[in-house]
Every structure is written in C-alpha cells, then in structure tokens.
Amino acid sequence: MGDLGEVTIIVGDPGRVALISENWEEKRTVVDSREFVVVVGRFEGHAVSICSTGIGSGSTEIAVTELIENGAKKIIRCGGCGAWQEGIKPGDMILNNGMARSQGMLGAYVPEQFPAVADPFLLTAIHQEMIQSGMTVHTGIGLTSETYYLGQGRSSMIGTPLKPAADFMQNWIDRGILNCEMETAVLYLLGSLYQVPVANSLVVHVSRHNEKWTNDEDYRRIHRQAANAVLRAALN
C-alpha cells in the first residue's frame, strides 16, 4: 500500500479524497480499487494519508482493518451525518465520543454490550482546534446504522413502502442520540480492539427535525475546513 502518514483520514465518498488532499504536497495515489482510494502526501510538513471506505459497515471493516495492518497510527473519520436533535443546524460539526449501533453490527468481534467509543484525548484535541477555528461543534453519542432507510427512520418510494415504527427516531432522540450515520462504530470498535487512537468529525448535511439540507458548495467547504482542523489537532 505504501507508507501511511502520522495521521490517516477515512472518508466514505471516494470523491472526497481529492477534495481533502487538494493542497497536500508530494501526494500520490497508492490504491485505486472499487470504493477504496488511498492517497499519501504531506500536510504542513507532516506525512499524512487518506482512504475512502465506501458506504456502510462491511467496506469500512475492510478498509480500517487493512489500514491498521499497514501501520496506521491514528485514524479519524471525516464524514457527514444527519442530525436528530433540535438545535443542531446543517453545516454544524458533530464529534461523537461514543456510538450506539444497530443489532448484529460486528457481532463476530464483540458482543452487543461492548462500547464503541472514541479516543478521548484525540477527540478533545479535535474539539479544541475546531472551536479555535470558529466552527460550531456538538459532542455526544451518535448512532451507527447498517441501513440507510428503515434503520434510520426512513421509508422508500417503492410501491407501498415499508415503514419504520412510528416512534423509531423519537426513542433514540429521547435517549440523547445526536445524529445517525453508517460507519463510525466500525472504526471505534476496531480502534479499541487493535489499540489505535480513533475519532470522528462529521459535518451535518441534513437536520432530520425539519429536513433542511446543507447546500453542496458549503458542504464541500466545511469538509475541507474540518479535515484541516482534524489534521492539525492530531499532528500537534
């Protein structure tokens, strides 16, 4: 795979690899296969790397495991999420210190009672860097779902759609869940098991409370700003 940097960012969308690494120096692509794109380079004088994972737990498990096999030292997921609590706006940042998860996720590794948590020191450093950069940041527990539709309280448009339970989202909201996405718990569990510091940095692209979305230009800009803050925090 090539030499990974002092910090490795993971993103879901392969297209976001080019966005985040746009201004890196000495960058080169070392993997480009299916949903997995890996670029290494230098950021402010430090060796860094970025890898796309695709969507969901299965491909993320592959990516994170092989990154750790190849010497990843710190891994931070820079992605997007939907916010479930009122008062969290599109374009805000969420840093999850822990994740609830759908049943069965990574059951081959740990029982369902095993917590999926971030490295507290790494998450705190990222939080401080983002606050100093003027970003609006929320911290707390999120939900990692293995599905995009029913498992996130959505129904499809297929004929007579299957619908989630009427109180599905509210049950999680009442328990303080800030947001929902599809990958972080995988990173947190594998980081704990293999003793690699991990954290996340999620741009809110939609508020599920009112279905208000971030526009594409702002979403890209905030992702780049957030990734730079993540790298500075993790490297310092």
UniProtKB/TrEMBL annotation:
Signal peptide location: none
Residue ranges of every copy of the Nucleoside phosphorylase domain listed in the record: 7-230
E.C. designation(s): 2.4.2.3
Cited Gene3D superfamilies: Nucleoside phosphorylase domain (3.40.50.1580)
GO cellular component: cytosol
GO molecular function: uridine phosphorylase activity
Enzyme class: transferase
Catalytic activities: uridine + phosphate = alpha-D-ribose 1-phosphate + uracil
An annotated GO BP: nucleoside metabolic process
Alphabetical list of PANTHER family matching this protein: FI09636P-RELATED, URIDINE PHOSPHORYLASE
Protein name as it appears in the record: Uridine phosphorylase
Species: Enterococcus canis
